[in-house]
Design goal:
The complex is a heterodimer of chains A (757) and B (154).
Chain A: E1 2-5, H1 10-20, E2 34-36, E3 43-45, E4 52-56, E5 59-62, E6 67-71, H2 80-92, E7 99-103, H3 121-148, E8 155-158, E9 161-164, E10 170-172, H4 173-180, E11 188-191, H5 209-214, E12 229-234, E13 241-247, H6 249-252, E14 257-264, E15 282-288, H7 291-300, E16 302-307, H8 309-321, H9 333-344, E17 349-354, H10 357-363, E18 366-374, E19 386-391, E20 396-400, H11 405-416, E21 423-427, H12 441-453, E22 457-460, H13 463-467, E23 475-484, E24 490-500, E25 518-524, H14 539-556, H15 561-574, H16 585-598, E26 609-617, E27 620-631, E28 634-645, H17 652-672, E29 677-678, E30 681-682, E31 701-706, H18 723-736, H19 745-750
Helix pairs in contact in A: 2-3, 3-4, 11-12, 14-18, 15-16, 17-18
Chain B: E1 2-8, E2 11-17, H1 23-30, E3 49-52, E4 55-58, H2 64-67, E5 71-73, H3 85-92, H4 102-115, H5 121-127, H6 138-153
Parallel strand pairs in B: 1-5
Antiparallel strand pairs in B: 1-2, 3-4, 3-5
Classes of the chains: A alpha+beta (757), B alpha+beta (154).
Transmembrane segments (chain A): 12-32
Pfam family, one (chain A): MoCoBD_2
Domain Aldehyde oxidase/xanthine dehydrogenase a/b hammerhead (chain A): 214-309
């Protein structure tokens, strides 16, 4: 057991009562109490209590012992709505079957970091969730001790039943909940030993599972309120353009249309949050009664666009410097490629240098140099961007899918001038996030539109609006060089990485620390295409590139690719180069060794091509081995074996699900997906031409293994996604005899690769 | 605008809408049946899949004028208590991540099993080709369909 300070003050306790009792929580209905039991089949129905008692901001207990736990963080499919309450329930010592989970609204008085991003919910929530559960447990024990006129030390708890040692007296949580809610919050509480966990480490079903499979309202797009109108935006057709004028008269008289106007979401003098990234500030808006009517009016609306002069100026500087002739400010994918190739061939800003890499390259007997690229990507959450807003004179009520509610609240505060306490943001379950909903411009747009209309509205993006709205994954480019001496030893390593508009470089990650002479350089090229975080930002390209290069390097050096990596990691562990290395070589090696064993590496059959990859990002380690073959020009993925070190696994089956999903997603994006531009215009606006991975293209089998080490847990939303791209590239090489350097790989595969055979 | 009679989940309803309005938006905006999802609007993602006289169709491409006077089943009407073998299999395998596409996946899967109670892996993959899962739960979807097929046969 370990003692921790509770840090839960009286203020947050009192504050919590008002929000939890208000009945404002989305998704709360009686179905919340029905859910499948452990085998997922039988439906369990919990009877709701007559009265609830707030113990602290994280939970309340009913007079019948039913417990409601508020899940603080946004749910984007990473399953925190189940796993975070599991952690609270563990320390509370309650029967999981007695728990009802509700999504907490934004409440910075009680919760910290209500954000879905960086795979940090579990890692950063670990202690506060445990403390909240343990604090409540202690208050219940104190209340029970008072009632029994016993010492707290003589009480034990099992599944919400308090027993008195030395007598057969028992009290259930429901019986002491009222008294517990009056107990002073203890300053210090004890947390359980890991060995005593009963819920953490056991697989529990998704708390929203039943609602999902029966089609109950859960998502932002499912919000319908009395008097609510539908709003849609019309945005410029190309990056580098802006609104000029429109003729709205004909459209205004179309059936169901209530109003047509423009908004300026982010006026120039507004102080923006980092999360206010938006492709376009000035938008045409159509408001009407039904979605279909507004969609028709949107199509009929005659808007004139013009070049944005500020952006033209910016692009002139950019393109002249590279000897290009486009000066319109409208960007093209082929020019991007030329610019990146030219810039990437120059020396760039040195971010890290160990030893004397330049000298080693000069005297090398062989230099291996390879360049890797990837395109812009759209997030394509299956639920398009949307938000409900009801802005009245004195209050802004906002409800919908947002990964950054705390920042969005500040944006609304600055844009509308409302005090923070007059802004109420509630989160729905999200139909995917992937980083796209970190950027809450759609929430601000909804608030501005609602204020202008003086009515509740739901802003809805069409798929086309969503896909052409930017905030894309940047395009990246990296060149790796390795110097080998006459004995084929690696003597120097050089990475020069850049992109539009940011570099994907992590200078202190592996193989930094494992090579005596190491050089890392970074560059970037400006753009007017808006970009943002996309699942495992930067890692989502550089991992695959690096792991492909190491694979090729191992082959050139005549080494087994896994042993080659393990040897380097051994060096980094025993005699690290430099001091800033931001990975743990032993844990890194651990997943490689595990995946080697579990996949029977080295014993594969001849008709299966295998590729290996391993990466560390977002505090977790993942190694993957991908087995495939190529049938004509069609890749067939037979199996992926994954070894993962994320410390303690809170909810094992759900964690496997995340690893499987990240693996499929990584294969899909590296193989099939790209966003291209012509004269600033996105060349794909829907799933007919933008390729996402589909059923037959997914691996036939995915095996997931976790390292058991009892270390405090880290996240899984992102870590399985980047490395699989390298495993895929390396397996493609084995299958075809050709190395793949440019994503999406399907382009090169279709352009006439002969299958090795 | 015109009036249409339509049978949804066994219940006859009257809807006043433009004849071209896709069934998807009639369900969502007019009838408060939001289980059927909007994903692409061009029949490429499968999130809006419903049963039209027993066949899986994309409701975003089905005008109310065509849907009228036919039998429509949505995810809400697939079973009375959410205990259709496919729904149960979905829960058993804990398939969903974000969950947004799953109603469409389930509707396609149930139509498949009706026609082909014991599909091969390849038949499952091909039948499910039109349903995108952006989170990548494809292996679990396939496993759930196989479990449902088994349970329906036993």
């Amino acid at each position: 057991m370990s003692k921790v300070k509770t840090g839960i003050g009286r203020r947050s306790f009192i504050k919590s009562v008002s929000f939890a009792g208000g009945g404002l929580l989305i998704g709360f209905n009686w179905l919340a109490c029905k859910r499948p039991n452990e085998d997922g089949v039988e439906e369990m129905v919990l009877e709701m209590p007559e009265e609830w008692f707030e113990i602290n901001g994280y939970l309340k207990i009913g007079d019948n012992g039913v417990v409601t736990i508020y899940s603080p963080n946004p749910e984007i499919g990473q399953n925190v709505k189940t796993s975070m309450p599991m952690i609270v329930a563990e320390e509370l010592d309650v029967d999981w079957d007695m728990v009802v989970v509700e999504q907490a609204p934004l409440n910075t008085d009680i919760f910290t970091r209500q954000l879905a991003g960086g795979s940090q919910s579990i890692r950063q929530g670990w202690e506060s969730l445990r403390t909240a559960g343990a604090t409540a447990r202690q208050m219940l024990l104190i209340a029970a001790a008072n009632q029994l006129e016993a010492d707290v030390a003589d009480l034990t708890v099992d599944k919400g039943v308090i027993s008195h040692k030395g007598s057969d007296r028992k009290l259930e949580y429901g019986e002491v909940a009222k008294a517990a809610s009056q107990v002073a919050v203890p300053e210090e509480v004890e947390l359980k030993d890991n060995n005593d966990f009963k819920i953490i480490g056991t697989s529990r079903k998704n708390v929203d599972g039943k609602k999902i499979v029966t089609g109950q309202p859960l998502y932002g797009l499912d919000v319908y309120k009395d008097g609510m109108l539908i709003a849609m935006v019309v945005q410029p057709p190309a990056f580098g353009m802006q609104f000029k004028s429109m003729n709205a008269d004909e459209v205004k008289s179309m059936p169901g249309i209530v109003d047509v106007f423009t908004i300026d979401t982010y006026p120039e003098d507004m102080e923006k949050e980092w999360s206010d990234t938006a492709a376009f500030s000035k938008l045409a808006v159509v408001v009407g009664e039904t979605t279909w009517q507004v969609m028709q009016a949107k199509k009929a609306l005659n808007v004139e666009w013009e070049l944005n002069p500020d952006l033209v100026k910016k692009m002139q500087i950019l393109e002249k410097s590279a000897g290009m002739d486009g000066t319109s400010g409208l960007e093209n994918t082929n020019i991007h490629a030329t610019l990146m190739a030219e810039t990437g061939a120059r020396n760039s800003e040195v971010v890290r240098r160990d030893g004397d890499p330049e000298a080693e390259f000069k005297k090398a007997s062989r230099i291996i140099e390879r360049t890797y690229t990837c395109p812009f990507l759209a997030h394509n959450c299956l639920e398009p961007m949307n938000f409900f807003a009801n802005v009245t004179e004195d209050k802004a009520e906002l409800l919908g899918p947002i990964q950054t509610p705390e920042y969005a609240e500040k944006s609304v505060n600055k844009r509308l001038g409302f005090e923070l306490e007059d802004i109420d943001i509630q989160m729905t379950r999200m139909g995917g996030g992937f980083g796209r909903r970190l950027y809450g411009h759609f929430l601000v747009e909804a608030a501005v539109i609602s204020q202008k209309m003086g009515k509740p509205i739901k802003l809805v993006y069409s798929r086309e609006d969503d896909m052409t709205n930017g905030v894309y994954r940047p395009a990246y480019h990296v060149t790796y060089r390795a110097a080998l001496d006459e004995n084929n030893n690696l003597t120097a390593f050089h990475v020069n990485a850049g992109g539009i508009p940011e570099s994907p470089l992590f200078a202190n990650r592996f193989p930094a620390g494992a090579v005596d002479n190491y050089l890392a350089e970074s560059w970037s090229i400006d753009t007017n295409i808006s970009v943002g975080a996309f699942r495992a930002p930067r890692s989502n390209f550089i991992a695959g590139a690096e792991q492909s290069f190491l694979d090729e390097l191992a082959e050139e050096m005549g080494k087994d690719p896994i042993q080659f990596r393990l040897d380097m990691l051994k060096r980094a562990e025993n005699d690290p180069v430099g001091e800033k290395n931001d990975y743990d070589p032993a844990r890194y090696a651990g997943v490689l060794e595990m995946v080697r064993e579990k996949s029977n590496w080295g014993k594969e059959t001849s008709n299966v091509a295998r590729g290996v990859s391993a990466y560390y990002c977002h505090n977790s380690y993942v190694a993957q081995i991908l087995d495939m073959s190529v049938n004509g020009d069609q890749p067939v993925i037979h199996k992926v074996t994954c070894a993962v070190d994320c410390g303690i696994v809170v909810n094992p089956d759900a964690a496997k699900n995340m690893v499987e999903g990240g693996t499929v997603d990584g294969i899909g994006h590296a193989m099939y997906s790209q966003m291209t531009f012509k004269e600033g215009e996105p060349q794909h606006n829907n799933f007919d031409s933008y390729r996402l991975i589909r059923h037959p293209e997914a691996p036939k089998e995915i095996d997931v293994y976790f390292i058991e080490n009892g270390i405090d847990p880290t996240g899984l939303g992102e870590p399985p996604f980047p490395p699989i791209m390298g495993a895929l590239a390396n397996a493609l090489y084995k299958a075809t005899g050709k190395r793949f350097y440019n994503q999406p790989f399907i382009n090169e595969l279709k352009s006439g690769v002969k299958v090795k055979g | 605008m015109a009036e249409f009679n339509i049978t949804i989940n066994g219940k006859e309803q009257t809807v006043d809408a433009d004849p071209q309005t896709p069934l998807l938006w009639v369900l969502r905006d007019h009838l408060n049946l939001v289980g059927t999802k909007y994903g692409c609007g061009i029949a490429q993602c499968g999130a809006c899949t419903v049963h039209f006289n027993g066949t899986a169709v994309r409701s975003c491409q089905l005008p109310i004028s065509t849907a009228a006077n036919n039998e429509i089943v949505t995810i809400e009407g697939l079973s009375e208590k959410g205990d259709h073998p496919v729904q149960k299999a979905w829960l058993e395998h804990d398939v969903p991540q974000c969950g947004y596409c799953q109603a469409g996946q389930i509707m396609t899967a149930t139509a498949l099993l009706k026609k082909n109670p014991n599909p091969s892996d390849k038949e499952i993959e091909n039948a499910m080709y039109g349903n995108i899962c952006r989170c990548g739960t494809y292996t679990r979807i396939k496993a759930a369909i196989k479990t449902a097929a088994k349970s329906e046969q036993s």
